[in-house]
Amino acid sequence: MQIERTHSWRKVGVQCLLLAMPTIFFAIVILYKLNEAYIILQNQWLYQGIFFLLGIFISLIFYGWRFRFTSTIITLGICYFIGYQIIEKYAIGEFDMFFFIVQYLIFLLVFSIGWLVGFGFSRWRFFTVIWILFLLAIEIILISKIQTISAEAIIITFAPVLLYAFYILYASELVRNLNEHQSSFSWFLAKRVSGFFLFAIAIFAIIFLMFRKDLMNIEHDWNKVQPDYQANKSNSQSMTKSNHDGTLSPNGQMPLSGSLSKTKQLVFVARLNNFFADGKTQNPLYFTADYYTRFDTVTQTFETDSLMPFNDLFKPDPSKVPLFFTKTDSLAIKNSQAIVDRSVVEAEIYKVALSPSDFLAPNTAFSVQPIPVPREYGSQYSSAYRAKMWVSSLNSAYFVYNPAGNTTLEDFQKMRFDLLRKDTSYLNIDTGFLQYYTSMPRGKSYQKIVALANQITLNDSIVIDKMLAIRNYFLSKDEFGQPLFKYTDNPGVPGLPSANKLDYFLFENRKGYCAYFAGATLFLLRSLGIPSRIATGFLTVDRSSKNPGWYWFYEDQAHAWVQVFFPGYGWIDFDTTVPDMNTQQAPQPDGTPPLGTQKVYFVGDGIIKKIDSTDKKLTLYVGKILYRDKSYTLKSVIPLQMNIAFARIATDTGVVNIGMLKKGAHISAASYNDRLNNIDIKRSKDTAAYILSQLKEPVSIDEVKIIDQSNVTQQNIGSRHSFLQSFNWQQIAVGCLVAIAFLLLLILLSPWLIWQYYQFRAKKNTHWSYRATLYYLNQLGYSRKMQSPESFAMLVDKKFSTNFSQLNRIYQKEKYSKNKPSAQEQQWSKDFFRLFIQSLRKQIPWKQRTSKFFNLYYTLNFFIKYV
Q1: In this structure, how many other beta carbons lie within 10 angstroms of the beta carbon of residue 761?
Q2: Membrane spanning segments where (predicted)?
């Protein structure tokens, strides 16, 4: 029995073109966003898009016949089950089987959605409404993942889905009510679809222009309340906090909460010049932000203390330091009390989401130097700085948990432990220092911690061995061979609100994240009289094999660990957080590092006296300069003219335009011009003034950093525009109108342009003479329609007294006969075309010719019927 068709092949083709293709494109965009948000999808959005494409196309073609939905779904389910059985039978190993099954289930889900969408488009009239609601729900979920709410993000996210929603509603009804047998079928569809898009784009543009201020207000209001919203999430804590400008900063305190929230957002990228003795193996170090030395027993929160003794935390504001100038604090080195096996290590930090005012570096930092981001990476990184640290050769991110089987690291570990075992006494350490860093809260809960510490280290007398005993305790197993302590982002809280959370962690729950492990370790060590403190910042993950020394830091790498003081060696990192065995680390690809920083020859720092935006020149009251890597301070400011025509102007949030330079602003201006290196520096009372006097003005500038605009006069202070506000909408509107006008003119002239093409080709052979003649007749309103070529030629000859029938016979002979036209016939064809056009022009008035010739319908009709 022959199965009847529901839709003709022509209608199925229209469904695939007008419904399936836009849906596939939009689905791929959605899949891309979902893969960024959810690790389990394994970043395979392209393959998943192909699965969806297969599902929707096969379904549309399949349901073009009168197949029932229930029977086909049952058949499809049987095929799915057979596929599952094949994978289960031939997969080797548990891991491979699990991987293949997960991938297969993802395929089934995506393919099935595509299949259902194809069925809905083919058979179910109200399916488009359900489909649109489904997509809107997904978009809302994806918007919830956005870290920085802005007008741009709202528009970019919602505009495409709304446009697609309106289009699919319109197109589905258009296809459903389509008359396949009407004349000018293709022209009808093209006219309807293009008309819809022109109308929709115009409506969207009008709505955006009308409500633009409201969108900006949403952005402004959200940025004001977002930090409070993040801070007040139900019993959830983050190691970072969101600022009003959308950037991230270290939290500044560490409460013990029931859950930890974190994202995969890239925060910064760093190059760390720290390797083992072989010069090849990387020795990563944790990047420190704060030290927590106080504990609030009421709120159970670890806090910073600006009055902590021997404060070795170097915490400058890089955004306030002039470009290429260095800020140094040697007191940090002195307060570290570290004199054994220390050396200076350099690091370069490139900020992505990190706040401009924040400074992160390994322990113990003492110097910062802002540097420009290479131009080709300006869109990826907002600002950068170079840091110097007084680093212990015994310190490493591998201090506790080494990668198994790495001989270099295992030998290094053993060497460190042997060295630290030689130092067993705190007799010569400042008494106040010891009392502060070994202080413990009082109470029953903390007495239990003291007893546990003594029990764990019962057989150990040396500090490092006690540390290792605590490490081994957290790594120990219970009577069932399972880990005694487990890592989790959601440890929960004790049943009683006032209960001690560290007590609950150590003796009951034994589940927690880094704050719990660091806090418990701190009090275990202090109860043994070992000076210690909590450090917070970012743990360093070594996954950049292609670019040794480069590390990428994501928000989920924000971390807390303990530092232990060893006389002579100073503070050493000690991380006891157990590995997370249940959560797979996100496959975050590390990009290309920002290489290519140029050598600077001159930097001037001062206040803008005058700015000429037209000529792109400014006059700077210079207060200090940097020349040949040496800083000079002037006794009095000197005006210096600068050419900034080719300069990149930036703040610590990214590149800005010249309009941001205002009179009274504090800036630093750098030049890479090696000709400035030729000045013979003379010893004088004011070397800086002499250097400035030798510069040829205006000095060519390559980099300008805006440091402070607080001195800018009020009339020059503009509101801080967002990305969308920086556009000149009037110029964009004019540009769009000009482009549309040009496109319309091109479309209107297309019949004439096509005629010029055919007329040029008609001089070559009979084929093109015949095609050009047909096109000319078509444009004048004489098309062949349902007639044969011979009948049409005879009709033309009868009306215009021409010999078109002869040209038709020569053309048919050339196209179908084995005997090709003679040279005389080919020459006649060329002559005929010229005489034929002249004859028609004499018989048809020019007004009639012009009005018909530029009829776009005739042109489209010609290509539908003759091409």
Answers
A1: 14
A2: 12-33, 45-65, 72-92, 98-117, 124-143, 149-172, 193-211, 732-755
